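User: Can you predict the 3D structure for this chain?
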Amino acid sequence: MIKFKRFSAIAAACCLLGGSVIAFGGCGGVKERVTLRVCNWEEYIDLGDWGEEERIDVANPFTQEESIFGENAMIADFEQWFAENYGYNVKVEYSTFGTNEDLYNRLSLGDVYDLVCPSDYMMMKLLAEDAVEKYSENFFNGENNYYSQYVSPYIDGVFSQYEWDEYAACYMWGTTGLVYNPEKINTEDISTVKVLLNENYKRQVTIKDNVRDSYFAALGIVNGNELIKPDLTAETRSLLLNDISESTIANAEDVLKQIKENVYSFETDSGKADMVTGKVIANYQWSGDAVHIMDEADGDETELWYSVPQECSNLWFDGWIMLKKGINGNEQKREAAEAFVNFLSRPDNAVRNMYYIGYSSSIAGDENCSTVFDFLEYNYGDYEEAEQTFEYDVSYFFGENSVITVDADCLDVEDSGEINRGRQLFAQYPPANVTARSVVMLDFGDKLGQINQMWINVRCLDLKDVSPLAYILGAVAVVLVVSACLLCKFRYKLFIKNKTGKGYERVEK
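Assistant: Here is the predicted structure, written as C-alpha cells:
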C-alpha cells in the first residue's frame, strides 16, 4: 500500500549535487523583472496548502539545507530560486484549465500564455499550427540542466520518436485502464475493455465523458480480435487504435451507443468518488487518478485494483511547451520559462509534485542521483510481513538493475510471467509488457469535426435512430398541444361571450 503521507527524510540518502544551477542567459547587464504566464492542469503542482500534520521535514541534497514539503507553494519557491540564480526577479502569473479543449478555446479567444502543459495530442495540434516555440540549445544541452540530465531514457525515446523533443519537455505520464473492486468483478471480465458492454455489470461501470478516451476504448472493442493477436506489431497496433476512417468512426459510434445503454454514466470527475463509496464497481480511468482512488479507498479499508485491458491502453503524456505568441521573441521570457521547467525537473521537486498529485513524473534520475527511485522504493518496498515477495522490474524507466522487492499480493502475476493488474505501484509504473502494448493516441487532424459529430450523436438524441412510430406519436403530441393552446386562447369567444347567464334571458336590442 502506498505511503505518500508517511514519506520522511528519504532525500538525505540521495545524490549530493549541491550548489545552484548556472544561469543560462549569462550576465550581460542588469535585467528587469519579467512576468511569466503559466497555464497548467488543475491541482497539478504542489500548491503548498498542506495541513500542519501533513508537512514533512526532509534533507534537501540540492541546497544542503533542511526543508519542509508542503510549507511553501512550488511557484513561490521557484520565484525565490530564480532570483538567487539568475540575478533578476520573475513573477509567475499562474492559472489552470480543466481540459485540453478548455485550454485551446482560451487560446483561440485571445488569451496569451508563455508556458502551458497540454496533453500529447494537443501538443501535436499546436505544433501543426506552428504555435510552439523551440527550446534553446542551452535547455537541452546545458551541463546543469536537470531535465536533460534526469529525464527517463524511456520518456526521452518516445518524445524523440514523435519529434516532440525540441519543442516539449515531459511533465507527467501514464496509462488508461480500469479501477475495479476485485470482490465485485472477476479477473477474466476486467481483463478486457468489453467489460463496458458486459450486461452482468449493467449500471455498475463508468467511462470518461470525453470523446478521445471513449473513442479509444471503443476502438479496443471494434478491433478487439486483431488487438489480442500475439504476433501483432507495435506499428499495426498503433494503426488500429488511431484509425479514423469513416467506417471505423461509424462502428465506434454504434459501440459507444451500446456502452451508453450499459454503463452507469459517462463521467468527468465523479468516477473517483463513486468508486470509493461503492456506487460503481469499475471505472475507466487515468492511472494517476487511479492511484488517488486506491489511496482514498484504503482509508476506508476497501481494497481496489487497477487493470490494463488486454486490447488497449492509451499511453499519455503531459508536456511543457512555450507558445510563440506569449514568448514573442522576448529572451527573458524564454529564459524564465525554460528555468521553470528546469526547476520542476530537479529530482527533489519531481518527488514533491508526485507526492502532492499522485501522478508519475518523467524524471528518473541516474546512477548518481536516485531520489525518485528511492522515493518509489520507500513507498512500495515494504515486504517484511509479506508471505511471498516479487521482484518488480522497472529498469526500462529508471535504468539497469532498477528492481523493487514488493509484496506479491499487490500484483497479479500471470502464468506467463506478465503483469496486467495490480495496485498503486502497478498504476504508477507499469511493467515493460504493459508499456510495450500501450499506444500514443494521435491528433484527429481533419477528421476532428466528423468525430465530434459522432460524439454528439452518442451523447445526445440522434434523429436518424428514432423510429417512424416515434415521429408519428411526436407529431400527434405537437398537434394536441397546439390545439390546447388555441382553445385556451380563444375560449372566451367560443364558450363565454354568447352564453346566457343562469337565470337570465337574453334580450335583443
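The chain is about 40% helix and 15% strand. The first strand starts at residue 34 and ends at 41.
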